[in-house]
Amino acid sequence: RILFEQIIVNAGYSVNWWLVKHAAWIPANIDAVACDYRGLEAIFERCISRPAGQ
To answer: Which of 23, 25, 32, 52 has an alpha carbon 20 to 30 Å from 39's alpha carbon atom?
Structure first.
């Protein structure tokens, strides 16, 4: 999560990891190893947003 958070924040977005359940995060990362990014995409759509005022 630290790597993703650094990328997200440096791109000008904010992230709320509280919206991500452990039960979703682990399988999404495992699937991503096999180039199935659907789980991570769904997670990022939920927890990444532009900072307020932008």
So the answer is: 52
* Residue 14 parent element (H or E): strand 14-15
pLDDT, tens digit, for every residue of 11-46? 999 999 999 999 999 999 999 999 999 999 999 999
Residue that is written with structure tokens 């990328």 in the block: 7
pTM of model > 0.90 = no
Return contacts of 24-28, CB within 8 angstroms, 24+ apart: 25/1
Going from N- to C-terminal start, the domains of the chain cover 2-49
**Residues 30, 38: Cα–Cα separation, whole Å:** 11
Note whether 42 and 8 are within 8 A (CB). Answer: no
